[in-house]
Amino acid sequence: MRSLPAKNFRRIEVPAFNKRDNVNNLVCPYISLPDSWDAYLSGLGSNTRQKMRRFLRKVDEGTEYRITVASAETFDRDLDILLNFWRIKWTQRKGDRLPGLVRANRGMFQACFDEGALFLPIMWQGDRPLGALATLVDHQKKAFLFSMAGRDETVRTPVPSGVALHAYSLRHAIENGIATYDFLRGNEEYKYMFGVDELVLQNLVITAPGNRNIGGKLDPRCVLRVLQMAMRLHKANNLFDAERGYRQVLDVTPRSPAALYGCGQLLMRKRDYRGAQQMFRKLVSIKPDADNAWLRLGLAFEAERRFADAAKTYRRFLQLKPSNAEAYSRLAQVLFALGKTGEADSAFQAASTLQREPSALVH
């Protein structure tokens, strides 16, 4: 932040507060773990300490309740249990986004497990799973990072699965030399029973004066992002903003083929044929094999009745795409306008022959 002095930049703090759940997602509860389980318990309130001991005693006995940890043999089953619980809980809230979120989390957890960076305990009552916890393991920083929980919300037991699984994970972390148990973002009330401290994040938007780009141009690191935005705007028929995006890209990278082509297309739609010619001419000088640019350039010449230039350009395109009926038809029309009826007839004949076959039309 020292490189962005307040006198030169505007800073806006953006909250991340979930009003529906009354959760501040800029607050990150965490626990600095001591060297022993008993030392950790001694820092808790007596009621919480007694609950944790009682719950863990129940699962350690293994008579009614037990906790297993995902292994190579059980991982697929255990991950399905977790994600199914999570899916059921969030179906209504997540709506159409849910399948994609489940796929993304499945892929992430699989990758973490393959690297030995996932701790996935499951709590059972007999053969019925009650809950599951997914915790990422940062071996370098010696940290457990709680990522996802799921439970069977149709069951009420004297041993709540969420508390028991966190207690089990905390004990396992301490026994394995983990230094930090991180609940990540969100100050949900239940996290505070575990004796957490808080890390408070800042969510900042930093803008240059007047919301203008520094130096009046894009930062080169933003060019690809802006180009992608311009292409999306173009596809959505938001032509004004799309052209502005293309031109901002060209200010920084004037030899960008995608920006030259997109901007040329927009100028054609505006009937700015001279401007379109400049874009397509520059593009074919950079990429002589850019066939669509040659055809668009020919169309721009033809629109200005520059028939000789159009004919030359269509012929260049046909060197690259000799089976394109549209180009032969265009060539025939401009040759006819030039009074070259013999050449025009030959081009019409070629177009007619090709039109009996699938043609490669430009879109």
UniProtKB/TrEMBL annotation:
GO terms for biological process: protein O-linked glycosylation via mannose. Residues 46-191 form the BioF2-like acetyltransferase domain. Pfam families: Acetyltransf_6 (PF13480), TPR_16 (PF13432). Keywords: TPR repeat. TPR repeats lie at residues 257-290, 291-324. It comes from Methyloceanibacter stevinii. The keyword Ubl conjugation does not apply. GO terms for molecular function: mannosyltransferase activity. InterPro entries: Acyl_CoA_acyltransferase, BioF2-like_GNAT_dom, TMTC_O-mannosyltransferase, TPR-like_helical_dom_sf, TPR_rpt. This is BioF2-like acetyltransferase domain-containing protein. SUPFAM superfamilies: Acyl-CoA N-acyltransferases (Nat) (SSF55729), TPR-like (SSF48452).
